[in-house]
Amino acid sequence: MRKKQFAVIGMGRFGSSVAQALSEMGFEVLAIDSDEERIQDMAPIVTHAVSADTTDEEALRAIGIRNFDVVVVAIGEDIQASILTTLILKDLGVPKLIVKAQNELHGKVLGKIGADRVIYPERDMGLRVAHHLISPSVLDFIELTPEHGIIEFEAPGAMIGRTIKQLDIRAKYQCNVLGIKAGGHMDITPMPDQVIRSGDVLVIVGANKDLLRLEVEFDVQREVKSR
Ligand code: ATP
């Protein structure tokens, strides 16, 4: 099967990280930026690096941008350039267009003009960091929608020795325990009478506000203080 080809536009911190990660995963990556210096920096890292102003339709045509399977637009600050670039790429018939948004309004516009996926890296990272700050035992947070996510955390003291039923997570917090990891094994069908043991890692899905409430109420502040 032919390897997927990616083009990443905008070599700021986010765009260059995406380009580098894709390249390390073995994909063909074209990096594009209007700044010649940034292109020179990326040249050794990606398959191809070209300098072009992507608000210029002819320049994008000349690059053959429509032949790429996925195009990521990571122009952040210059919202006008981001919107124009997205519009042109959509017109040129790029199969999959992923665009970084600076804020909600920018994201809304991008969705309306045909971006297949709008991403908010700063906001997502902020949310992740917030979970880590509230609960140092949160190992990971995955956003499912802007309002919902999955958290993974090591069972705090207040949960240990109690069963899922006793903790009453579903009724009290409207969250669901998806799985419990223990000793390298993942149980994806935990039973209500399963006892939480020290060192168990719980994977829970719910609304962000409920997850945060659960994290706070299970006495994680005490752990923060004792650190
Ligand atoms: P980050 O926070 O990820 O560093 P940012 O949101 O600050 O990025 P910018 O620095 O504004 O994003 O833009 C990222 C890159 O996009 C810059 O290297 C800039 O040169 C490039 N860029 C901006 N406008 C265009 C354009 N019209 N054509 C091509 N590249 C562009």
Bound molecules: adenosine-5'-triphosphate
Distance between the termini: 51 Å
Order of helices and strands: EHEHEHEHEHEHEEHHEEEHH
What class, by secondary structure content? Answer: alpha/beta
- Count of distinct structural domains: 2
Overall CATH class of the largest domain = Alpha Beta
Given the C-alpha coordinates, what overall shape results? elongated
Q: Give the low-pLDDT segments.
A: 220-227
By DSSP, the count of extended strands is 11
InterPro entries: NAD(P)-bd_dom_sf, RCK_C, RCK_C_sf, RCK_N, Trk_Ktr_HKT_K-transport
Protein name: TrkA family potassium uptake protein
Domain RCK N-terminal: 3-119
GO molecular function: monoatomic cation transmembrane transporter activity
Itemize the secondary structure elements and their pairings.
Elements: E1 5-9, H1 13-24, E2 28-33, H2 36-42, E3 48-51, H3 57-63, E4 70-73, H4 79-92, E5 96-100, H5 104-112, E6 117-119, H6 121-134, E7 138-143, E8 148-154, H7 164-167, H8 169-173, E9 176-182, E10 185-187, E11 201-207, H9 208-217, H10 220-226
Parallel strand pairs: 1-2, 1-4, 2-3, 4-5, 5-6
Antiparallel strand pairs: 7-8, 8-11, 9-10, 9-11
The protein binds adenosine-5'-triphosphate.
GO molecular function, one term: monoatomic cation transmembrane transporter activity
Organism: Paenibacillus albicereus
InterPro entries: NAD(P)-bd_dom_sf, RCK_C, RCK_C_sf, RCK_N, Trk_Ktr_HKT_K-transport
